[in-house]
Amino acid sequence: MSRTDPILELRDLEVHFDTFDGRARVINDVDITVDEGETVAIVGESGCGKSVTAETIMGMLPQPPGEIVDGELYYKGEELLGDQTAHERVKSESMGMIFQDPMTSLSPVFTVGEMMRDVLTYQGKTNVGWLEIVRNVLGRRDADEAEMRDRSVELLDQLQIPDPEGVLDRYPIELSGGMRQRVLIAMAMLGEPEFLIADEPTTALDVTVQDQILDLLTEQIERENLSMLYITHNLGVARRIADRIYVMYAGEIAEVGTRDEILDEPLHPYSRGLVDSVPKLTEFDRDGIEGLLPDYTDPPSGCRFHPRCPAAMSGTCDVERPPRYELSSGQEVACHLYEDGLSRAEAAEIAAEEIEFDSGAAFEDRPTSEPAQDRSSVKGESAGTTASIDAQTPRSAEDTDE
Amino acid sequence: MSSDHTRADETDSIDDTDEPLLQVRDLEKYYPITGGLLKKQIGEVKAVDGVSFDVRRGETFAIVGESGCGKTTLGKTIARLHAPTGGSIRFDGRDISALSERDLKPVRREIQVVYQDPTSSLNPRKRIKDIVAEPLVVHDIGTKAERRERVAELLERVDLPEDFLYRYPNELSGGQKQRVAIARALTLNPSLLVLDEPTSALDVSVQAKVIALLEELQAELDLSYLMITHDLSLTKNIADRIGVMYLGKLMEKAPAETLFDAPQNPYTEQLLSAIPIVEESEAAFKPERISIRGETPDPSDPPSGCPFHPRCHRAVDDCSRVEPELVDVGTDHVSRCLLHDEDESEM
């Protein structure tokens, strides 16, 4: 894999949330790199912190309750987390964002045309005063209006929206789900971004429509040579769109590799459990992963996955946080089973030998307040800390997909 | 035109020795569209339009389709939460499509529903023990002690610990809540469960375990499942037979393997081709990529002729004029497409 300079680099990100149950240490030491022209996917289950990561990059993290405790974000070499004005500027000049649910991210009281016109009018501007707004509303010239309309029509046309002129005069509610998502992509493209962040943009759609949207998105990316960070829980979608994949678990990166490395032969026990759990056309492994996401206010010591891990080593995994070991192929795995410099074949052998999910008792459903019986020391010890994340972080509502 | 084509409906003939648990024939559920000052009916939505299929004893029959195809309405109509506007539902040898609420009560013990989102299907103000015991209360079964015993037994059956009895739904994770919903559905010892997207609100690692539980329960308690879902990869793994729905109509119905190995209907082909696969090895099991056009049209104004023709990659001129019937295309395999007739006449 030839690596160019990264367009986006997130280093050592740490994000905490203040909740009623205490301080939730959600994002722990997350590094993400997106190279120029590359599409990177972050995959993980509800509550793993993938949307929080995206929000931090977009400067949209609600603070409070969120707080960026540590970390740097470089966009083309420029640090953004410490400089809000720079972040705002880079965001409006170079970044575009596509959200999950077009019905909540499009205004119901404006037509598509009005929203697109406003994007064109105000893009790249921060702190627009009311005077300017009034001036824009009253004194917009017909020539500008027509030009903006042409540009909007052109984009809607690129996204294969039938009758783009007509769509400009319609309200979001008059459009189908697929059309709304296309409008949202068109709006993200209006600012001619170099970098796109997409947070589960196809989750609310049917498979046939999802297929169309993914095609269009790929087309846009190739035409404009965009870089993209794509957040999803759907591994199949990640295969369609991503060059590289980051697997996230409990606010940490478990594994990074190329699409095929991660999906065809995952090495981290969590990624393996995740990939195995997806029903496939070839087979369906019903073992799942035992246990629940940990309570972020009191995350497990050592590796955050160890209480649920079938290969957890007592004395190591519950004590020491695994670094990201880099294999000779460039793939990185945060798991004590591996070490730096292993070849992929060697690593795959270790994975095959050590990682075995069994279909035993549904640990997922063990009581959350009492220690489980009959578990090995490592697992039993931590059973008391597992609790449903749903009740405890403000993220859960948006993260529960489908 | 060949005379080999029997109307598909007749092929599911009633066999006395092994009568299917559920026989749905030409089921219709139309909703009126009203308008104007006097709320006059100005049209109708054919949410379920002439659907026929059987659910055999002990099998899982899956209905797949995109949003708005009428699959949820179909499930609710079969559970008689809605009254059908036409057709018949024979359950265990008895037509239940026109029964009154009172006559339905014993039937309700036999047919239970598990919904997609356990957060909204469980009453947040009741404890788990009361949620699971509620069917017993409604049907006035057992003494207090007997009910308590039954609830404890059910909780154990769905692998939930006993101390969950006194918890409220919001203290449970999504997977745990869905287990409670399943326990509640089993309280009255039903023979048919209508599973409406039972795992689509859950993460995959949790879904796997819930599916394993459902399969275990099916084998142990001899349950039949009518599973409604949009996840084709899942149905391939757990369903015995599958019906594909589009705009209220059954487009194709076949045993699971047949449907995936040799889909006959163009709509099924498109659905299969759009499955986002995870592992490279899966590619061999799905059809060539088909470029898919458009979205499901407005069900209140369906296209003329074949409902799928505006999106179909095989559409011919006649498709917009002639409405295809379901015809036999193989063993226990029916499909609705004009091209089947043509293939036949060429031979």
TrEMBL record, chain A:
Its EC number is 7.2.2.11. GO terms for biological process: peptide transport. One of its GO terms (molecular function) is ABC-type nickel transporter activity. Keywords: ATP-binding, Cell membrane, Ion transport, Membrane, Nucleotide-binding, Translocase, Transport. Residues 10-275 form the ABC transporter domain. Residues 363-378 have a biased composition (Basic and acidic residues). It is found in: Cell membrane. The keyword Transcription does not apply. It comes from the Archaea. Residues 383-395 have a biased composition (Polar residues). It catalyses: Ni(2+)(out) + ATP + H2O = Ni(2+)(in) + ADP + phosphate + H(+). Residues 356-402 are annotated as: Disordered. GO terms for cellular component: plasma membrane. It is a peripheral membrane protein. The complex is composed of two ATP-binding proteins (NikD and NikE), two transmembrane proteins (NikB and NikC) and a solute-binding protein (NikA). NCBIfam families: oligo_HPY. PANTHER family: NICKEL ABC TRANSPORTER, ATP-BINDING PROTEIN (PTHR43297:SF13), OLIGOPEPTIDE TRANSPORT ATP-BINDING PROTEIN APPD (PTHR43297). This is Nickel import system ATP-binding protein NikD. It comes from Natronorubrum halalkaliphilum.
UniProtKB/TrEMBL annotation, chain B:
Residues 22-272 form the ABC transporter domain. Keywords: ATP-binding, Nucleotide-binding, Transport. GO terms for molecular function: ATP binding; ATP hydrolysis activity. Pfam families: ABC_tran, oligo_HPY. SUPFAM superfamilies: P-loop containing nucleoside triphosphate hydrolases. CDD domains: ABC_NikE_OppD_transporters. GO terms for biological process: peptide transport; transmembrane transport. This is ATP-binding cassette domain-containing protein. It comes from Natronorubrum halalkaliphilum.
